[in-house]
Fold:
Amino acid sequence: MLRDGWSPSATWALVDGGPHGSLNCGHAHADALAVEVAANGRPVLTDSGTFCYTGVERERFRASASHNTATVDGESSSLTGGLFHWRHVAQTTVHAWLTSSGADFWRGSHDGFARLPDPAVHERSLLLVRGRYLVVLDTLDAAGAHELTVHWHCAPDLAFVPSMTTLTRRGSNCGSAKTQVAPSSPTLRWISETRSAPGMVSGLTVIEPATRMP
Structure:
């Protein structure tokens, strides 16, 4: 957990860097390195939840693509082996967790993609500069070429406006297909950048509250 305070208006980020689950991990999800984020006390990036315990929807909600983390070549970090079992489990390692009066930093990785024909390692770093912004850096280390996809799941009352690189609040009828996003009331500035080099791809995301915190 990285946070800039303990008040109801605090900004924080929660990252999954622990074990996949306990016993047979029956209630676990493929959410290694997934994050949840709140800015100024408002949920921004949220967990998709379970939805149901049977059928296709259960498998979809357990997959990495349903969490705020990355997939490689369309694959999840861990693979299910039935409704309450797994046939491959990613192991997560925490490399750094530092805190100070001005910033928090966390870095971790997992070996879930080492099973691929060309093994790959996903590493994620988070930097929370208190009262200013959150940086998420994703790096994929591999010998060959891969497709790295980073998935973001916004809170239900937020919508992403790519042309403005902002997250904005929806109207009160946010469940309606006719909901209008108000671009004049940005909640966050969202900056995303991707770079590649031989054997490595990295993606940088900066989340900054539109209204600075004191």
The chain has one domain: 2-209. The chain is about 5% helix and 45% strand. The mean pLDDT is 78.
